[in-house]
Every structure is written in structure tokens, then in C-alpha cells.
């Protein structure tokens, strides 16, 4: 059992140490997420803009 745990820990450490180029540029992911959130915010403002407050 102990050897299984140490092999698993070794595999995790090796995976964490791998350095390589990401498949997709993180700036595109962040920019796309920001755009979606801003569009949702604008939709919320547009939807609630003409309503009276109770």
C-alpha cells in the first residue's frame, strides 16, 4: 500500500513540474470570459433599467 501511495505522489509531482506551452493562450480565455460577463451585465442593466423600484 505504501508503494502505491508513493507512486501516486511521484506521478503528481512529475505532472506539476511539466512545463509547456498551453494549448490555448490564457489571455484569450480571460478576454472571452470578461466579454461574456460584461454582456451579461449590460443585459441585466437593460432588462432592469425601465422598472420602478418598490
Q: Could you characterize the architecture of this molecule?
A:
There is one protein chain. The protein is mainly alpha-helical and 54 residues long. The protein has two helices and no strands. The chain is elongated, with a radius of gyration of 23 Å. The N and C termini lie far apart (64 Å). The model has no long low-confidence stretch (mean pLDDT 81).
Total strands: the figure is 0
Radius of gyration: 23 Å
The stretches of 5 or more residues where confidence is low (pLDDT under 50) are: none
- What is the makeup of the main sheet? none
Q: Report the order of strands and helices.
A: HH
How far from one another are the termini?
64 Å
Q: What portion of the residues fall into strands of 2 or more residues?
A: under 5%
- Principal-axis shape equals elongated
Structural class: mainly alpha
Chain-wise SSE layout:
Elements: H1 2-17, H2 26-48
Transmembrane segments: 25-47
Keywords: Membrane, Transmembrane, Transmembrane helix
Spell out the key features of this protein.
single chain; 54 residues; mainly alpha; 2 helices; 72% helix; transmembrane helix
Summarize the structure.
It is built from two helices and no strands.
Amino acid at each position: 500500500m505504501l508503494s502505491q501511495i508513493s507512486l501516486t505522489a511521484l506521478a503528481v509531482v512529475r505532472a506539476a513540474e511539466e512545463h509547456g506551452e498551453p494549448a490555448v493562450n490564457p489571455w484569450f480565455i480571460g478576454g472571452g470570459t470578461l466579454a461574456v460577463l460584461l454582456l451579461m451585465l449590460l443585459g441585466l442593466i437593460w432588462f432592469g433599467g425601465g422598472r420602478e423600484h418598490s
